[in-house]
Every structure is written in C-alpha cells, then in structure tokens.
TrEMBL record:
Keywords: FAD, Flavoprotein. Residues 173-324 form the RsdA/BaiN/AoA(So)-like insert domain. InterPro entries: BaiN-like (IPR004792), BaiN-like_dom_sf (IPR023166), FAD/NAD-bd_sf (IPR036188), RsdA/BaiN/AoA(So)-like_dom (IPR055178), RsdA/BaiN/AoA(So)_Rossmann (IPR057661). This is Oxidoreductase. Coiled coil: none annotated. The lineage of its organism: Eukaryota, Viridiplantae, Streptophyta, Embryophyta, Bryophyta. It holds the Pfam family HI0933_like. Transmembrane segments: none annotated. Residues 1-377 form the RsdA/BaiN/AoA(So)-like Rossmann fold-like domain. PANTHER family: OS12G0638800 PROTEIN.
Amino acid sequence: MMCAIQAAKRGKTVAVLDHTSKVGGKILISGGGRCNFTNVGATPSQYVSSNPQFAQSALSRFTPQDFVAMVQEHGIAFHEKKLGQLFCDESARSIVDLLVTRCHEAKAQFFLDCKINKVGKSELFEVETNQGIFSSHSLVVATGGLSIPKLGATGLGYEIAEQFGHKLITRAPALDGFVFGSQEIEKFPGFAGVSADVLIKVNGKKFRENILFTHTGLSGPAALQASLHWYSGEVVEVNFSPDRDVLMWFKEKRKEGARSEIKNLLAEIIPRRLAERFCELYFPQGNLPPLPQLSDKILSPLANEVQSWKFVPTGTVGYSKAEVTRGGVDTNGLSSKTLESKLVPQLYFIGEVVDVTGWLGGYNFQWAWASAWAAGQAVGTK
Ligand SMILES: Cc1cc2nc3c(=O)[nH]c(=O)nc-3n(C[C@H](O)[C@H](O)[C@H](O)COP(=O)(O)OP(=O)(O)OC[C@H]3O[C@@H](n4cnc5c(N)ncnc54)[C@H](O)[C@@H]3O)c2cc1C
C-alpha cells in the first residue's frame, strides 16, 4: 500500500492485488493490536541481512520521522513505549485506515480476493488471476514472509523471485522464541508463566529484556530478539542476574553476617521460583546450609549457573507464531536505491520478502515502509 500510494501520487496507474479479503492483516494483529509502527532509532544495524548495509539507502531516504509525519497528518495518537518503539494509543486499525485512505486519495485500485495463478513476462508483466489477466509495465512484489499462514502468508514472492532468476537466502521463522530439549524441560518443570528480566546472548548479540517460560521453551521479548540471531546448533546463554554479580552478592551478605538460607538470598535478586529451582538442582539432597557454612568454592558454580545458564534449543517455535521470516530474496540481485531487480527491469521486491529482517521493536514495519517508498519513487520510470 505504501508503494501504491507513492506510485499513484506520481500519476502511475496502480492495481493492488491481494488474495485475502482484507488488506493489512498483519498490521491489525501487530503490537498486541496497537501496532508498533516504527522505531525512531532505526538504522541498518538493527537488521539481519547477508548484506548488512543494503537497507541503508531506503532507511535514510524514508525515515521513521517521515512515517510519523504521515501518522500525525492522519490524526493518529501514539506514544513511545520503550527503546524508541512507537505504538498507536488506540488501535492498529488506524494505520490500515491511513494506508487505505491514502491509496484511495491517490487513486490506487484494490483487487481483493484476487487469487494469483501465474506470473509471466513478455513485453509486459502478465499476472493471471481469478479476476482476469493484469498486464503492466512494472510489477512490485510485496507478498511478505511465511509467518502466520492463516493470515494469508504464502511463498509466492519467493517463487516469483526464483522464476526470474533471483537467488534466495535460506529462510527461517524468527522473532518466535525457543523450543527446549528434554533436558531443559526437566530442569524447569511447571515453569510456564514465570518471567525474568535477563541478559540473553546468542551469536555475539546481547539483549536485555524479559523472558517468559512457556510449556515448551522460552518466549518474551528477549527470547524473541535472540531467536532472530540464532542458527541451528548454537548455544543460547542467559544471565538471570544482569545487574548484580551473584558471587559478590553472596560474599557481601556473608560479610554482613547474614544467616539466611541461600535460596532466600538468591530470591532477593532473581525470581523466587528460579532461585528455589537453581538451589534445588545444586543441593539435591535438600538440606540447604545457611550462608556462613558455604565457601566460595561451593557458591561459585551456583553463581556461575545463575549468571551464565547455557542451553542449545532444539529449534525456534515456527511460522505459526513467528513475527517474521529471516532470509528471503538475495539483496545482491536488487538495487538498494530502488529495490528494482538487477536481472529484470521494472520488477521490484519490497518489504519482508527481501533478505532484510529487523529486530523486534518496530523495525520491520519501518523497513516495509522505507523499501516501499523507495520503490514507489522509481516504479514505472522508463
Ligand atoms: C503477530 C505479529 C506481530 C507483529 N508486530 C510487529 C510490530 O509491532 N512492529 C513491526 O515492525 N513488525 C511487526 N510484525 C512484522 C510485520 O508485520 C511485517 O514485517 C510486515 O507486515 C511486512 O510487511 P510486508 O508488506 O512486506 O508483508 P505483509 O504485511 O505480510 O503483507 C503481505 C501481503 O501479501 C499478501 N499475499 C501473500 N501471498 C499472496 C498470494 N499468493 N497472492 C496474493 N496476495 C498474497 C498477503 O495477504 C498480505 O496482505 C509483526 C508480525 C506478526 C506476525
């Protein structure tokens, strides 16, 4: 829709084809129904791509402030929740309304419930659908990723890319959290619903936010962020006490003459359920000696486990829950300025279908807007 608005404003005849009956399905469910529509701090460093600088051009030409200006013009109230993340005060629907209204104003036409059977090209692009054949000088592919199939996600964009000779970067569900193996399930039985403020590390990246234990693994913002950077077989490391050195804490308390049980002391700095479980695992015989009887040698491995608990997930949760698809159309085949194919003139790929995947926090929409805007300035130019 963003691309349609820009192209139609430039006087191009634009048809928006979508096989669902309502546009903007993912916008509606995003941000818990309030749509985290951008992040004021978006730069290429918050994106994962085989070509890390690719997003720079589009992101610098259509900035978060440019989208905020559209939001303000449309009278949508919003607020910053945290870390530069902007959300609607009321409903994500207002963002869909904004885009649909601007499309109508610019005279871009919608064709919904439009099932696409085949895409071809002779002199013109030809898109064969249940509503007839659409012939055009240009074709913009904005079919998104594979996540949440029930909202209409398909792999059509990737198929079109391959059909025209583009390479794909391996795709994987991302921003979806982790699945535990049997060892971790046994380690944390009945922990679903327990949350903790942690520092999570994976593949050289660190995130300080909450995790949430689920019946099958880890969710919550920190686990979602980490899942974007995780590749099969890699270790995830969790620090349950990111602000306080646990061994130092025990030593200080011992110096002060504390006689408390170790699990109670630990529960002062990490959630009680976790404190109890770590102590239970570490002192399996159950009789937890009071602090003065515990030497540094005994305390140190426990402190280390709390601050650097490591596990290897069996996988991430999958496309049914993933917020995004990592990977996609290889950016080497696209112009970073216009998103036009380097192989087929006037063929464009924008948004999530491209191998540019943002962190959690409004970055994916900002990429969708910016790449769409960039293509919208160029599409149809001979
Ligand atoms: C639960 C959830 C919450 C999210 N929250 C946020 C958030 O708060 N902030 C953020 O930045 N990002 C968020 N995201 C990610 C964000 O929604 C996407 O990155 C963004 O929507 C991508 O935009 P797009 O236009 O590339 O693709 P999409 O928004 O996925 O749009 C693709 C369109 O193509 C259509 N389509 C697909 N296949 C076909 C086909 N075969 N024929 C015809 N039409 C087809 C689809 O129906 C859809 O309308 C969230 C995602 C999910 C799943």
